[in-house]
Amino acid sequence: MKESISLSQSDSQQHKIARPSLPWTVRLPVSIVSTLIDNVCRPNGTSNRRLINFLDYQTPPKPANSVSSTDISLDATRDLWFRLYSPSINQLLPVLIFFHGGGFSFLSPASLPYAMLCRKFAFNLPAIVISVNYRLAPEHRYPSQYQDGFDVLKFLDENSATVLPKNADLSRCFFAGDSAGANLAHHVAVGACRTELRTMKVIGLISIQPFFGGEERTEAEFQLGGPSLLVSVPRTDWCWKAFLPEGSNRDHGAANVSGPNAEDISGLDFPKTMVVVGGFDPLKDWQRRYYTWLRKSGIEASLVEHPNMIHGFYVFPHLAEASLLVLQIKDFIAKCTSKVPNSKPGTFAAPIQVSP
Q: Which parts of the sequence belong to the Alpha/beta hydrolase fold-3 domain (predicted)?
């Protein structure tokens, strides 16, 4: 990782480097994780998968906080499975299909941060949450991750009656993801728009600090792309190198969705989209471009900004902004639902206090 592309000295002199004010309970784990990432990612685009797996604490499915969970396998040959979270609420609930982050190369639905986050979503939104496991780079490059995500969607659409709880409201389905998972959610949403789903109606996309990029270096990458934050320019460059097809650059349509190789989505019935941006995220300029591109493409989109937050702030439950984000997502789901024909106002449970 130390030999990866980085900002030049002249660049760093021309741009003032900003630093967020974070409690030590955030700074310490961010520093540890950043160091670990730098040590498992090799300059040639390969990774130390054995060490990654050793350091990634995995949680089993279990009932907790009035939410049950179970793992459902689709294809063991490619480790394709998802974790289903079902809150103990006897009312129709929206369905949230979630794709985890990790630069396309790390983590899974069983990783502790995502197990906690998805359980929190299930309990507080409330919603039936489906957390998707997909193949990882660099062992599996583009488009493996997109194929896995879309195959889970097709499986759910064809088997919803037997797989999902009876209180799953298939007329209120949402895609959601963070970082690389938000990138994946976007591309799966595009694929869903080009496919006739039989039972599921996707009405919203929750894009939490999506991982997009390009050959250009943005102002935020200059200001915030140093090694002290979880996301840095050398780390994102490594992730793109590990994920994109051999010979491609960062203007590939998978990375730069609004760039020179952008796919035209203006004629699609693309779901209403909520884009979440953090003020101390080096990717924020790409995320705002994504939002602007959606609006120019005729898509109904909203921008939610957390000015003082870093990339991945939502996995730190003691941060007030993490709980606020849950309420903002709940509000977005309610607004999308209000526009669904024949939706019943009593569908949602009474307001629930956000749990830590």
A: 96-314
Query: How remote is the C-alpha of 163 from its chain's centroid?
Result: 23
Looking at residue 340, its amino acid is: V
Residues 325-343: tens digit of each pLDDT:
999 999 999 999 997 876 5
The verdict on residue 278 lying in a domain is yes
Q: Are 246 and 176 in contact (CB under 8 A)?
A: no
The token duo for 44 is 């040639």
Residues designated catalytic: 179, 281, 311
Rounded to 10 deg, the angle between the 112-124 and 320-338 helix axes is 50
CB 179, CB 312: distance < 8 Å: yes
**Domain total in the chain:** 1
In angstroms, what is the C-alpha Rg of the chain?
19
- This prediction has a pTM of 0.92
Q: What angle do CA 84, 90, 92 make, to 5 degrees?
A: 70
Residue ranges making up the domain that contains 106 = 72-337
Cβ atoms within 10 Å, residue 308:
14
Buried b (16+ CB within 10 A) or exposed e, 191-216: ebeeeebeebebbbbbbbbbbbbbee
Distance CA 1, CA 307 (A): 29
* 60-87 confidence digits (pLDDT tens): 998 888 999 999 999 999 999 999 999 9
CATH code: domain of residue 323: 3.40.50.1820
Q: Single out the residue of 176, 173, 146 nearest to residue 314, CA to CA.
A: 176
Give the single-character DSSP code of 165: -
CA distances from 107 to 44, 104, 135 (A): 21, 9, 10
On whether residue 36 sits in a domain, the answer given is no
pLDDT of residue 354: 42
Angle ∠(281,282,286) on CA atoms, nearest 5: 100
248 domain-assigned: yes
Asked if residue 331 belongs to a domain, the reply is yes
Calpha distance 40→47 (Å, rounded): 5
17 or 61, greater pLDDT: 61
